[in-house]
Amino acid sequence: MTVITACVLPLASAGTAAAAPSNTSEPTTSGDCLYILNTSGYGTTPDRVRYCNIGEGGGWIDNLTCTVGLNQTGVNGYVAQRACDAADD
């Protein structure tokens, strides 16, 4: 007969605290994009949310898709570019 025993190992020794990583700057999100749109007089619509989410991807094609998409929803080109830049910074 073979006996198998379970061994429990502590994850951290007593008196040791795990330090959580701190990030002093907040990552940008599609919320930053929507904030710029809203403060520039453009309301939030499902299409604008979708394009801001795409802009959050960070690549140049995502930024371009975001900018053109917002422009097609009636957003001024300058505001659209600023909003999409904020989403992917």
What does this structure look like?
- This protein has helices spanning 30-39, 46-55, 60-72, 77-88.
- Helices cover 51% and strands 0% of the residues.
- It has a domain at 30-88.
- It has 89 residues and is mainly α.
- The radius of gyration is 23 Å and the shape is globular.
Can you tag this structure with a few keywords?
single chain, 89 residues, mainly alpha, 4 helices
Structural class: mainly alpha
Note the total helix count.
Answer: 4
Chain oligomer state:
single chain
Helix content: 40-55%
Main sheet record:
none
The average pLDDT score comes to 79
Strand content: under 5%
The span between the termini is 63 Å
Unreliable stretches: 7-27
The H-and-E topology, N to C, reads as HHHH
Radius of gyration: 23 Å
**Count of extended strands:** 0
Tertiary shape: globular
